[in-house]
């Protein structure tokens, strides 16, 4: 059930501050990933309170990790998911069906982020800062989670 009647965000809450306060974390070297994208064509299906809730946000380190994990791997997977959403609607699916598909995919991205970051962190403790190629090799091991 929607809490808000807003179709589009008129003002985005300070989700970085929300995340930092909820997690008692210094996020100055992180970008904050929304498990449900706030800027998608389907964002209107979700209340802004859910999209910006601490449980819906993940910190991803800036730099190579963000570029590979967030801006490439997750971006491509979301684009594929949005194609499925549009296809579902064309074939007679409802916005409720689309909402369910997006929530399911958000859970998959959460698993992907968690497993990828855990492995990247372990490898960086052993070998120091990883290259984009090394990070990509790690995230490739977990892309099956995005299917």
Beta-strand residue percentage: 5-15%
Euclidean distance between termini CA atoms: 27 Å
Following the backbone from N to C, one meets helices and strands in this order, namely: HEHEHHH
**Rg to the nearest angstrom?**
16 Å
Task: Name the structural class.
Answer: mainly alpha
Spatial order of strands in the largest sheet:
1-2
DSSP strand tally = 2
Mean pLDDT, as a whole number?
91
The low-pLDDT segments are 1-9
Tally of individual helices: 5
| Portion in helices | 55-70%
- Main sheet record: 2 strands, antiparallel
The tally of structural domains comes to: 1
Shape: globular
Q: Any chance you could write out the topology, listing elements then pairs?
A:
Blueprint: H1 15-23, E1 30-34, H2 48-51, E2 57-61, H3 64-90, H4 95-127, H5 132-142
Antiparallel strand pairs: 1-2
Descriptive overview:
The protein is mainly alpha-helical and 147 residues long. The protein has one domain. Helices cover 57% and strands 7% of the residues. It has a two-stranded antiparallel ribbon with strand order 1-2. Helix 3 runs antiparallel to helix 4 and helix 4 crosses helix 5. The longest helix has 33 residues. It starts with 14 loop residues before the first helix and ends in a 5-residue tail after the last helix.
């Amino acid at each position: 059930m929607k809490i808000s009647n807003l179709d589009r965000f008129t003002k985005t809450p300070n989700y970085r501050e929300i995340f930092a306060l909820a997690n008692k974390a210094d996020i100055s070297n992180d970008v904050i990933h929304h498990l449900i994208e706030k800027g998608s064509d389907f964002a209107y299906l979700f209340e802004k309170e859910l999209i910006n809730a601490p449980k819906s946000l993940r910190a991803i380190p800036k730099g190579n990790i963000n570029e590979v994990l967030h801006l490439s791997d997750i971006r491509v997977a979301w684009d594929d998911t949005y194609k499925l959403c549009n296809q579902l609607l064309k074939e007679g699916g409802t916005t409720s069906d689309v909402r369910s598909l997006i929530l399911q995919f958000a859970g998959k991205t959460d698993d992907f982020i968690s497993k990828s970051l855990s492995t990247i962190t372990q490898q960086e403790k052993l070998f120091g800062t990883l290259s984009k190629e090394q990070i990509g090799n790690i995230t490739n091991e977990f892309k099956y989670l995005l299917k």
